[in-house]
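Entry 12.
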Amino acid sequence: MRARSLSCVLVLATVALALGTASASAAIPFCTFGSGPGQCTGPEGVAVDTASGRVYVADFGNDRVNVFSEDGDFISSFGSSGSGPGQLENPTGLAVDDDPTSPAFHDVYVVDSNQRIQRFSPSGAFVLSFGSGSVHSRTNPVAVGPGGTVYFGEDNFKSGIEAIRRIDRFTPAGALLGSSDLPSTAFLQALAVDSSGHVYVNRIGTGGIVEKHELSEPSATLLDSFDVGANTTALAVDSTDRLYAAQLNGGLRAITKRDPSGNIVKRFGYGEIGFGLQGIAAGAGGELFGSEEFTGSPSPGNRVIRLPQPAPGALSCCLEATLGNTKATLKGGINPEGKAATYHFEYLTAADYAENGNSFSGANPATKTAESAAVGSDFELYPAEAQIGCATPEVPPQPSCLEPSTEYRYRLVAKNADGENFVEGQFTTKAPFEVLETFATEAGTDAVRLHASVNPLGILASAHLEYVDDATY
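Predicted 3D structure (tokens):
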């Protein structure tokens, strides 16, 4: 076919494409979805024996407890489906006796749908069962405090009305030592105990508020409350009485760490925690272990993650890039970690990065953006942003221009007086010119109208249409 006439329509527009890039993550996953050895179907409670380095995970869907090393290597599992001694049905609550002075040192306590607390040896041998009058739900939290005392968060009803919210204390042999009623009728969600026997709890439906109580009788004495609206889901206390809380901050899941006086000293885990943490526990080296929410499929969630604590200094996270062909807008988040912080971005081509030995420094050093002004000096998450490249390249292009259709590596570096941390990502710039659509109308026996929709990506451009018959093509 030969056309006697030709017309074309060019639609010119600048369209920015936002590309999310995964932040460099220190989180190490294990106990991933499944029913085989070392797998979990809905991990719930997590506990760490800091002396032996064993991590215990309540495997809700497989009716068992899985045991791992702190590196995430599978060791063993115990429990089987049922209601008999040593059997489990949908276990959730989990605690380890970590006190060398306790007669139950290293032993493991498990709460399940059979409404009881069972004690097991470190190897998983059944020892005893107790708490049948206190355990009314598999979701009731359990913890072990000084001397091996077992603390249990009891929820009960009276005449269909939420009536009892209290902490029961048991000896390792299962004898009731005492009970302390708590104010409010909101359900207990998480429980942690420090070396003085003070108890931290958070409640369902209260916006995640955390309460600290002294267990006087008959009613507990409220010592402190904080983190209203933080959507706390899990709590843990380490060997130095520092409190860890799994929460939301800036719309992202994170861990808030407080000293024994209640002051925030660190907030971390941004971009590394995919779903709500059902349980958390502190390891001997300061790392944190958390069980991510069950979502009913292999991924996301349905796993346990190991979160090493970051080095001192401001923290960066949550990279994304809005891309053109010769320019980009880099974005991320900054947590000042309690001191005035600044940030900058660094970037270079993936080829230069590889020639540097997978480094931002070397023979082909990265380009750095200007250091930002100081952001806040608290523990909140602040946005970070920088424009790179050139909006209108010349001929030849300016050195500042990015190269079209090229892969880049970049990182966001945040620093305060204590040090600096960074998170890395990558992006690929757009092609020099995008043809979005081609089509034909008004086709006749000897003529047709050809159309094209193109995006010059903000750069002055010209275009033409070419055509040929099939046989010649």
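Annotation: The CA atoms of residues 107 and 184 lie 32 Å apart. The first strand starts at residue 10 and ends at 11.
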